[in-house]
Amino acid sequence: AGNFMETPGAEVLKSQVQREFAARADAYVKSVGHASGDDLARLVELAQVTAHTVALDVATGGGHTALALAGQARLVVASDLALPMLQSAAAFIQGRGNVCFSVADAEALPFADGSFDLVTCRIAPHHFPDVGQAVREWARVLRPGGRVTLEDSVVPDDAELDSFMNTLERIRDYTHGRSYTEREWRAFFHGAGLEVLHTETWSKDHPFQDWMERGAMLDSRQDWQHVEEMLRAASPEAQAAFGIKLDESGTPLVFADQKLILIARKAE
Predict the structure, then answer these.
(1) What are the residues whose beta carbons fall under 8 Å from the beta carbon of 261, sequence distance 6 or more?
(2) What is the tens place of the pLDDT at every residue in 89-148?
(3) Opening angle at CA 123, ends 70 and 221, nearest 5
(4) How many other C-beta atoms can be found within 10 angstroms of the C-beta atom of residue 224?
(5) Residue of 65, 38, 47, 56 lying closest to 259 (CA atoms)
(6) How far is CA 222 from the centre of its chain?
(7) Do the Cβ atoms of 67 and 146 come closer than 8 Å?
(8) How many angstroms separate the first and last alpha carbons of the chain?
């Protein structure tokens, strides 16, 4: 892939992501959390799409962001590593906007330098093996003055809370790479020569049962129990940071994670 060497670890993670998301493609198209929400409207608003915008949506998943952009942009290219995911997205979007589809590795995009006015990536980079490389690729395919709008899960800037949430996520979904802190995200953009214009974070509640059912556990019974135990045994700090609520019997009902929207620009 591309002109850079990759560790076997990265290749393994990518093949896992391809396999898992191929299997879950239809579930993602139907997922309310991915399909809708104020955050999607907010992302599109901050992207400042015009009738002239040519946009690339990286790791499009069910295609929800691509479709939201397509209402306003001249053209949207929806890309994903998993072909079945793209096929589901294409079936979902079907004629509802000017969208074309491309199988593409976010860390080695098959597009020329300066091809796009806008690059978007929503709720996906925590699956990428090398986020720094992905951000450099976004910068490369942007025209001067173009923007990136990113949304992903973030973790608090506290080692214990960071470890708690990333461990929880990895047990629930073995394709989870890492959720970063906002500070780390800013460093990725800075390292790619992109200027961060704006960030905002908010808390998103997840009904526990639904969240677990959408996961990809290696041993569903054991892993499910492990996650429940972690939430039950969470420190007061973790309970507060992640809005953990249990019923009388100690079964998790809901918890929350943090989402970040980040807008950056490539210098003119």
Answers:
(1) 39, 42, 43, 46, 149, 150, 151, 198, 199, 200, 201
(2) 999 999 888 999 999 999 999 999 999 999 999 999 999 999 999 999 999 999 999 999
(3) 135
(4) 18
(5) 38
(6) 26
(7) no
(8) 29
CB 26 within 8 A of CB 85: no
Rounded Cα distance between 245 and 77, Å, is 40
Beta pairing partners, 200: 261
CA–CA dist 135, 191 (Å, integer): 9
Tokens of 185: 């995200």
Task: Give the pairing type, strands 245-246 and 194-207.
Answer: unpaired
227 confidence band (pLDDT: 50, 70, 90): very high
User: Is 55 in contact with 76 (CB distance < 8 Å)?
Assistant: yes
CA dihedral 254, 160, 158, 128 (to 10 degrees): -70
Q: Are 255 and 169 in contact (CB under 8 A)?
A: no
Q: What is the DSSP string of 107-128?
A: TB--S-TT-EEEEEEES-GGG-
Average pLDDT of the residues in 17-42: 62
Query: From CA 65, how far away is CA 243, in angstroms rounded?
Result: 27
At residue 95, the pLDDT reads: 85
